[in-house]
Amino acid sequence: MSLCAGGLGQLGVGLAQMLRNQYGPESVILSDIKKPPSHVYASGPFVYADVLDYKHLRELIVNNRITWLVHYSALLSAVGEANVALARKINITGLHNVLDLALENCLRLFVPSTIGAFGPSSPRDPAPDLCVQRPRTIYGVSKVHGELMGEYLHHKYGLDFRCLRYPGVISVNTPPGGGTTDYAVQIFHDALSTGHHECYLRPDTRLPMMHISDCHRATVEFMQTPDCQLSLRTYNIAAMSFTPEEVAQEIRKHLPHLKVTYNPDSVRQTIADSWPVRFDDSNARRDWGWAPAFGLEELVTDMLLSVRDKRTREGFLVS
Asked: Residue limits of the NAD-dependent epimerase/dehydratase domain (predicted)?
């Protein structure tokens, strides 16, 4: 039985569905501190859980005989900079609760990391798995802390800790949630609604990106990989790398009228400028056979189709 904490964010629902398809509809418990949409509540077990409430989290783990814990609870980069104290509590104190419970109950633990775990002194093109990191956001600092704590507990106590550094993840199912790469989701909605997108990054800002289905598949494959095949506890995974102007040009192959204006936001632009422009994921490809299915062309085609379908279902006009 798996527990997915912070499961109502961009990644949890899709990951739970993929695992439920493989292991059964009752095999994953989603949890969060928000009320789930009706379709999520109907799709499988859901419980309220706050990662800052150690006692309640322990009860959930013990009562449901949890063996895998997936820890998605976090404040993202731009939101975290706006509320550092809250980000510190959720991203670090919440992580420590999860690490302690995993050790106490012999759980296998997956904790995602991020492109934001790198900083301006990191190699940028490409960024390898092992290098100087030194991020300059509380989100990035908390993720490096999580990577190192998990690796430490693995080597000292044998904790089965696994971590993937995600690039920007592009999905139609959840609205942008305060990340620096969120423009790459919003641009598709704007292209089909108003035909105009105002981008908060410069047109030449190149960042690693990934379609959400590749992200889910990478996570499940990584969780299923025998421990003896892993040479690291934290891996980069990559799919593509593009700029706002490049994704806009690809969208214009389908929607020639799309207009994009650029009004860089100083906070997000500074964050983006400190991040890698590409990931080196050669270790993931070698150790457990990681390979993405979506490039930029496939991503754009799929997102436009998915956003158009979603807007039509919800009764919105589509241009």
From this structure: 5-238
Residue 152 appears among annotated catalytic residues: no
Per run of 10 residues, the mean pLDDT along the chain (length 319 residues) is: 93 94 96 94 95 97 97 89 94 97 98 95 96 94 97 98 96 75 93 95 97 97 97 98 98 96 94 94 98 97 93 75
CA 69, 75, 78, 80 torsion: positive or negative? negative
Catalytic residue among 23, 41, 72, 139: 139
Q: Hey, how many other C-beta atoms are within 10 angstroms of the C-beta on 130?
A: 10
Residue 2 bridge partners (DSSP): 28, 68
